[in-house]
Every structure is written in C-alpha cells, then in structure tokens.
Design goal:
Residues 336-425 are annotated as: Disordered. This protein is of the alpha+beta class and 440 residues long. The chain has ten helices and 20 strands. Helix content is 21%, strand content 18%.
Length: 440
C-alpha cells in the first residue's frame, strides 16, 4: 500500500497538521481484514495521495522518539528505501519482487534513505550471485544509515522473503513501523517496546539469538513455517517464545497455499498456531486455540495483551505458550483457591499401634516372660506409700499381671519405683501375691 504524505512546513508543529495515523486508518477502513493477501501478496487498500513535500517531518515516529536507531550505523547493508514524493506505510525492500520492480523503475533521485528526516539519495545494485542492495548515489555523501543485515551466500529463499514482507505489511497495517531483513531481525517492529520477528526454517542457537535480541532491547517472536520440521525446531516450539506460521487458501483454513511459487493464483491468509492458547471450557486451564488469525495475534502481542509464558507455567496444557494476560490471571486465581471439602467422607485411619502380643502357651509354662515393654508409649504408674517403700526389698521383683485387657505388668525396682513392663499373660493370682507381700 502506498500513500503520499501531507506537506509539512519545517517550522510547523505536529499538532498543526492532520494526524498521519488518521489518514492511514481511513485508507485501511476499506481493506481486506484479517491479513488476507492477493496473489501478488499485497493487501488490497485504497491509496491516500497527498501532494509531495520538500522536506518531511515524520511526526508519527520522530516526535515520539520511535524509529530506526544509529546502533545499526554503517555496519550493515542498505536494503530499504523510500520514494521521494510518495510516502509508503512500509519502506521498499530490495528482496520483495513487487518492491524491486518499483526500485528498478525509479528514476535517479527518486529513492531516498528511509531514516526519518534523511533525504540522502540511493541507487540500486545487484551482483552476479543475486545479492541486492542500495548505496548512496555517486557524488553524494554517505548518510551512514544502514538497516539491513549483511547478506552472505546470496539472496534469501522465495518463501522466506515472502513471509518476511507480509509480516511487515501486517505490522504496518496495525500502525507500527516495520522493516523486513533488519539488522537485528527478519522483521523489526518499532515501538515503545520493539519486537524482533524471526522466521526460522533451519536449526539455530535459539537461546543465544534470543538473548542477543533482548540485549538490543527487543522481545522476540519466533515463527516456524510448516517447512521447518527438524526435531530441534519442534522442541524449540515449546521452549522458546515461538509459534507455527501457516499459509492457507482464503477464506478457509484447511488448504495449504504456497504463494511464493511461480504461477500461484488466488487469495491466501496467514495463521499462527500450536502455542497460541485460550481459556479451556472448565475455566481452570489454558489449551490450544488452534489456527489463530496472524493479524490478531500480532496485534495482541505487539500491544502487550498477549505474552509468552513458560516453561512449566501453571495451568498450561503444554507448560508454555502465548496467552492473554487476563486469562493467565484468572487461571492462577482458580489454582490459589482452597480445595473444596469432599462430599464422601474417607474411612478412619487404622490404628498404628495395638495391644502387646500374647506369648505362646509354651512360654507361659516355661516361665519365659519378657520384661521389655512393647513400644515406647505412656507408661501407667502405681503410687506406693512411704511405709511400703521402706519395706520394699532391694532386689527387683517382677510381678507379671494378666487380665482380660492385657495390661502390662508392674515392675518395682530397688528405689521403690514401679512401672509396667513385661508380658500380661499370667493368672490373676498375682494380686493375691502382692497383697500377701505387702501386709506380712
């Protein structure tokens, strides 16, 4: 989509001109929603045409401090350009087939640096191996603004290029400044919190590259096409902030499409899936949302409405995924609630200790009665008066009572203290023996 900018005098304040976002919003009001693309890959919209301007101020980006930064200064390759008299929602990119046609058909001086406020003129270059880039027009000073990564080994694949450009177009449709094949990402999305979108089809060091992009101040979104089928990529799908990227024939979501191949016709639509989560029907967990509209997914992620959680996130069916902040808060609140009382009562626990075992008959006849108490438990005591203590013998006398309750026997030591011990299987005549000893 192309639209010319309204002329702005360099001394005018941004509030004195019509908001560029309002102009673009009006243009996109008639567009095909949901990230739907034609066979050529362009979003169908009406162009907003305004007269050319001698020196523009990009109030949507400069006044808000948003835009390409000098951290990529001169170390990278110039692969993006703007038209001098035609402001585009997203800059021209040398590896987009449609953009390249516009670039090659431009007159000298028509292409300028995409850096807001820079008017340096650019010219196209194409090497024998297919590598394309731009450079400052001979005879002019190098502006030093380069935002594309250095290309090694020739141009990217047709699939990779098509996906990069269409993702950038969706982000631009949402009102963000997006640049494909940027120095730090396949698609760099500017904003208060920048995002680096990576279309990854081959194995790579996900952890290192994610850390590098976060160090550059951007959150990362890994999008893995259906052609990415290696085991490492499948594992990374749930360990990194990633999702599946799918292209289907419009308007359905079941017939796969390959619009980057020659001869493709019809309309296609981008979908994101596998790790995009929704609230489950029980309200206690988050489950896969299936194929999710790519434009809506990008809107939610770029705005901070949907974030990456994991690994081992509470309530997630797979332990990780992209979920709405409010859904995660609701699930966590449910898991923090105390458990409801059970309707069915559980049977009482069995006793852990029982009565001491009764000795075998052979033990009783042989007089082999153990004086060791069973388990360490509270031992009942018998109170003995001072008179009884004075007449108590010095040697231990073991009296082994036996009653129907199997009470442990009394053991009286030389100090006159008594305790229960031993077995409890002797006849009841032990009481008579005790009384006879105490009163004789």
């Amino acid at each position: 989509m192309e639209c010319k900018r309204q002329p702005v005098d360099s001394h005018m304040h941004s509030s004195d001109v019509e908001d560029p976002h309002a102009l673009l919003a009006q243009a996109f009001s008639s567009s095909v929603g949901g990230g739907e693309f034609s066979a050529s890959g362009a979003i169908t919209v009406f162009a907003v045409v305004v007269p050319p301007m001698p020196y523009p101020r990009y109030t949507a980006f400069v006044d808000q401090g948003i835009g390409m930064q000098h951290r990529d200064h001169s170390q990278q390759m110039k692969t993006h350009a703007q038209r001098r008299d035609l402001w585009r929602r997203h800059p021209l990119w040398v590896y987009d087939p449609d953009d390249w046609k516009l670039i090659t058909g431009s007159q000298t001086g028509d292409l300028i640096c995409p850096k807001p406020g820079c008017r340096a003129e650019l010219v196209k270059v194409q090497r024998s191996n297919g590598t394309r880039f731009l450079r400052n027009r001979p005879g002019t000073v190098d502006c030093g603004h380069a935002f594309g990564r250095v290309s090694r080994g020739g141009p990217p694949s047709a699939e990779h290029t098509w996906l990069q450009q269409r993702l950038a177009m969706l982000c631009a449709d949402l009102g963000y400044a997006a640049f494909p094949e940027y120095a730090h990402a396949d698609v760099w999305v500017d904003g208060p919190r920048p995002h680096a979108i990576e279309v990854q089809r081959w194995t790579t060091d996900f952890a290192a590259r994610t850390s590098a992009r976060r160090h550059a101040g951007a959150d990362v979104i890994w999008l893995l096409p259906e052609s990415a089928t290696s085991p490492q990529l499948k594992r990374a799908l749930f360990r990194q902030p990633a999702a599946r990227l799918r292209v289907f024939q419009a308007p359905g979501r079941s017939v796969e499409a390959r619009p980057w191949e020659p001869g493709h016709t019809g309309r296609v639509r981008l979908w994101v899936g596998a790790t995009v989560m929704r609230m489950a029907d029980d309200g206690r967990s988050l489950t896969s949302a299936g194929n999710y509209d790519a434009r809506e997914f990008l809107r939610e992620v770029l705005s901070g409405e949907r974030l990456w959680y994991g690994p081992n996130a509470v309530g997630f069916a797979y332990g990780s995924g992209w979920a709405r902040v409010e859904d995660v808060a609701a699930v966590r609140a449910v898991h923090r609630r105390p458990a409801r009382p059970r309707v069915q009562t559980e049977p009482a626990a069995a006793a852990t200790t029982g009565s001491p075992p009764s000795p075998q008959p052979s033990d009783r006849h042989a007089g082999n009665v153990s004086a060791t108490p069973p388990s360490p438990q509270a031992e009942p005591t018998v109170t003995i008066t001072a008179t009884e203590r004075e007449t108590a013998p010095s040697a231990d006398i073991r009296l082994t009572p036996t009653d129907e309750d199997a009470t442990p026997p009394l053991s009286i030591d030389g100090a006159g203290h008594s305790r229960m011990s031993g077995d409890s299987s002797q006849p009841k005549r032990w009481i008579h023996r005790l009384l006879s000893w105490l009163f004789h």
